[in-house]
Specification:
By secondary structure, this protein is α/β, with parallel strands linked by helices. It has 7 helices and 12 strands. The strands form 2 sheets. It has a 10-stranded mixed sheet with strand order 1-3-2-4-5-12-11-10-7-8, with helices on both faces. Strand 4, helix 4 and strand 5 form a beta-alpha-beta unit. The protein is globular, with a radius of gyration of 16 Å. The chain starts with a strand and ends with a helix.
Length: 230
């Protein structure tokens, strides 16, 4: 099983893991290195999360997800950077819906919106899909006050890929917009599903974006919001 921690914790941290929220992070593809995602989430372990990173899509299963309170989807639909075959299919996609409806939390970040156009079940669950992006550019991220995920988050700018999205669930609650010279787009939204919750964040192609303090706060807030309450 190719699940790994980003680092080997000291004994005291390992003991404290029993108090942390087990979170499975699916990452790594040709355009989005798994190591960058690992580095992006590593500082948030101090906010109460025990991250495990799965980079090889062939090692994924619906049953594996049930071992975790939260799942982060941060990879396009290919097995890994070394294997461009799809890891998720029309038949296997329903595992995500089952997981969330049963009370799991799902956070979809950047690459997790790409390459799933043919998987209508996953698209319905996430509420939208990736369309295209221009070349990397300066992108302003503008929070919409009132949603708990933007608590403490001020408008900020990063150089990133400006994802253009089709927001297919018009009842989804948009809490973040992205704006560049190319236009304005929904960049963060939430939706309920059964007993669980889904959150989507579209920034996150560059190291600059992942490291920005405001994006780190968005990620932290989103994880806590999606976390099962029972």
């Amino acid at each position: 099983m190719t699940i790994r921690d980003f680092h080997n914790p000291p004994v005291a941290e390992a003991v404290n893991r029993c108090r942390k929220i087990r979170t499975l992070v699916l990452c790594d593809d040709v355009w989005h290195p798994g190591d960058m995602v690992c580095r992006g989430f590593a500082p948030l372990a101090e906010a109460g999360f025990d991250f495990r990173f799965l980079e090889d899509g062939t090692a994924w299963s619906g049953g594996l997800m049930t071992e975790y309170a939260l799942v982060v989807l941060a990879k396009a639909n290919i097995n890994s950077a070394a294997d461009r075959h799809p890891w998720l299919s029309v038949d296997s996609q329903n595992a995500f819906q089952d997981y969330v409806q049963g009370g799991g939390g799902l956070l979809v970040v950047h690459a997790g919106t790409a390459g799933y156009q043919e998987l209508s079940g996953l698209r319905r669950l996430t509420g939208g899909r990736f369309l295209q992006h221009p070349d990397q550019c300066e992108v302003d991220l503008i929070p919409r006050p009132g949603h708990p995920i933007v608590a403490g988050v001020n408008p900020f700018m990063v150089r990133d890929e400006h994802y253009f999205m089709a927001l297919e669930d018009h009842a989804a609650e948009v809490f973040l917009h992205s704006q560049s010279a190319h236009g304005i787009q929904p960049a963060g939204w939430t939706r309920p599903e059964g007993r669980g919750r889904v959150c989507v964040l579209t920034p996150g192609h560059t190291e600059e974006a992942w490291r920005h303090p405001m994006f780190q706060l968005l990620l932290q807030n989103a994880l806590h919001w999606a976390c099962p309450k029972n």
